[in-house]
Design a protein that fits this description.
The chain is α+β, with helices and mostly antiparallel strands. The chain is built from 3 helices and 5 strands, in the order αββαβαββ.
């Protein structure tokens, strides 16, 4: 077990199995020394633990829960990275993440939700985990997922 996976274990987290693509794409692809992932939704054991729009109020996914789901997306991303590279310790830098939140029209705290992924990358990779980011509110995501995150990283 490498340093990154040891750090995950110290946090009480583990990598899931790579989610099977739900369409005509691959979980990750490499060009040069950059790895691009497909967007990952917060599957846990092959199912979505929570669905719906994010916001404040009855019937909506709370921002706190959505932030937890963004961290699950990050774990799914890391699983795809490990499957492609063989070892998370090969990650040299997290370059950029793009996060999508299925937001209620009145919900404007989308960046706070995507912090669930950003903070995990910062914890695991230190300065190399600091990245550029886009956080976008959208009307709907696949399978009614509340959150989706994709990743670009540099590896050695």
């Amino acid at each position: 077990m490498g340093a990154v996976e040891s750090a995950l274990a110290d946090l009480g987290l583990e990598l899931p199995s790579v989610a099977a693509p739900a369409g005509a794409y691959v979980p990750a692809t490499v060009t040069g020394n950059l790895l691009f992932t497909a967007g990952q939704i917060p599957f846990v054991g092959g199912t979505l633990p929570t669905t719906g729009k994010v916001g404040e109020g009855d019937g909506l996914v709370s921002p706190e829960r959505a932030k937890e789901l963004a961290q699950i997306c990050a774990l799914n991303l890391l699983a795809a990275v490990k499957a492609e590279l063989g070892d998370l310790d090969r990650v040299a830098r997290i370059v950029k993440i793009v996060g999508f939140v299925a937001a209620d029209p009145s919900f404007t705290a989308v960046p706070g939700v995507i912090n669930g992924a950003s903070e995990l990358f910062g914890t695991l990779f230190g300065d190399a985990g600091k990245h550029a980011r886009s956080a976008v509110g959208v009307a709907v995501l696949p399978l009614d997922a509340p959150v989706e995150v994709e990743l670009i990283l540099e590896f050695r």
